[in-house]
Fold this protein.
Amino acid sequence: MMYRLLTVELYKIFSRPRSYIGFAAIAILIFVIQLAMYVDGSNYLSFITLQLEASFDVQGNILNGYLITYIILQTLIIQMPLLVALVTGDLISGESSAGTIRLLATKPVSRAQIITAKIFAGSIYTFLLVIFLGAVSLFFGVLIFKTGDMMVLNSDRISILQSGDCFWRFVAACAIAFISLSVVSTFSLMLSSFSDNSIVPIVATMSVIIIFTIIGTMDVPLFNHIKPLLFTTHMIVWRNLFQDPLKTSVIIKSLIIMVIHIVAFLSITYYRFIKKDILN
């Protein structure tokens, strides 16, 4: 029964045109960024490395596929919560307003099974979105710009990663990005369980993310105590994978906090949906 419910939920997701907006937007932006780097990437890179060349002998294929992929990930992962919320934000509220959720309630399945199927369907969509971003950007990046050692400029240091040490970091970055976006999907799903309007959870999710992000960027003593508790603070922890030495403790701490958020959001969603009056 769960397999059938999951199949139905996936069909409903991928039968809606809005579900393909994310894939189309990612494909277009990857093409635009790679085209810009192919045409004018050397000038862009020389501007960044101008001061470095005074102290270091910079050689080799610096503008390679790994660096381009890293730039793309930095640019797009920040924008992806909107693409996820567009789909997961109305998995419950959209059907509540349409009345189909009442039809499901008449079937011989429990509410827990219904919400579980929706959660898994939203997670599968999020996973496919992340894999699409990582695979397409890395494949065409390496195809067009070839491989080479990867130079990462951080706020306080420069990390040089050997070519053979890059691929696993991108795989791990996509895995962490999936967990980060799962926080967004479960949060929007939680809001969706409280609303009968399909737009409200989407707008509310993005509003919360924007507010939390602004708080996270402001260097105010009061906010410094709040920042570690905000899930947006930990959503960019994947960048630590591209530092040398690797900050394993920071990554693990952020992952634990994000998983706690996911569990909390799911618990509230289950409780709300099971107790919700969906028959009227």
